[in-house]
Amino acid sequence: MEIKYWAGTDVGRKRSENEDNYLIDQNLRLFVVADGMGGHASGEIASALAVHTVREVVAAGRDVLERFDASDPRAHIEVCTLLEHSIHVACERIHEKAQREPEKRGMGTTLVVLLLIEDRGFIAYVGDSRIYLLRGDLVYQLTEDHSLMNELVRQGKIRADEFDDSPYAKLKHAMTRAVGVHATVEVDTLDFDVIPGDAFLLCSDGLYEYLDDNDIRTLLALPNVEEIPGRLIDVANTRGGKDNITALVVQVPGDGTGDRAAALNHVLEVLRGTPVFDGLSYRQAVRVLHATRQVVFEEGDVLCAEGTAGDEMFVIVDGTVKLTKDGAPITTLAAGDHFGEMALIDQVPRSATATAAGPGRALTLSRADFHEILRKEGPLAVKLLWNLLKVLGARLRRTTADLSEARREIVEIPDELLEEAEPS
Q1: How far apart are CA 136 and CA 272, in angstroms?
Q2: Does this model's pTM top 0.90?
Q3: Are residues 116 and 245 in the same domain?
């Protein structure tokens, strides 16, 4: 898969030094942006050390990239682990340098990394620099800011549009994670499909603070990739330029209208429309999708049987599935419906049988993978557990209503029918 890329960086209009750095390795198809922090040019040292260390470690692990097999889940984990390790090494080196040179203590950097292998993308990140994806006409933020502002917004303590007028305004750029400030750091990763027509923007906060989705959509779609970073930097400078500005653009040729693109978009749309996964961001939906397995079924296939052990839930992507209990029909489910979610919580045998009413596809999420998401993805875990609680609550209310209706019908049986039923 051929790709086009270009990058640019600028000191901005308020700063005297540029502490941003970026790196492109064409052979590895590795793209990195870092935004350093610390006085006495320490930020520039930290960001430069970070981007070069990441490349060094990834290059040393080239065998992991060369043997990558998209069909093997372990291969995906190996690549994500390699990117995590590269940032951990960068963190150690920056921290050690700061300890040796007292004037540099406290220096650190953000870091966003994009690695492309065949038709897969892998990202790793720390801090508040970002990676955006333009797919079709939609812009998605693939990273989540590790910042105090984002944490307070996520917890519902303040709205993003209120932050500048709040008591926290002076802490707007305070980060909850950075590379090198401490000896270790937690790294977030994401593994996702790349399709023709995709375009990526890796950037520091000095750029994205001046952009909205429409700006990103318009500029990333320009045909000449070499002019895009400069245009983005000009926008940021025109609108204030109060910080260093870095933009790295990657374009995957194609128009994004092929069968593979349509299939992927359909699956993500179905997943995000499912009650258990309601309200997930694009990044979170991609994270869940990567943890699922696709099952293709034909009419009459039994997806799960009443009374048997189960450890996975199902989300119907295409087709219909009939649920029965003791041989009696319960309901028919269609695309966007899900069943078996109780298996994510306990190990009680299945309460119903699910049989395919025709050909179709479903996604399955195992209990082990669900628990792994809960363990590693705090904000996503909160959404999933809350959604699961709402689903179970709705079912409990329906069951209560059905029991009440059944009791009412029994109470209202005419006396003459009861008399006829009495033995003579």
Answers
A1: 18
A2: no
A3: yes
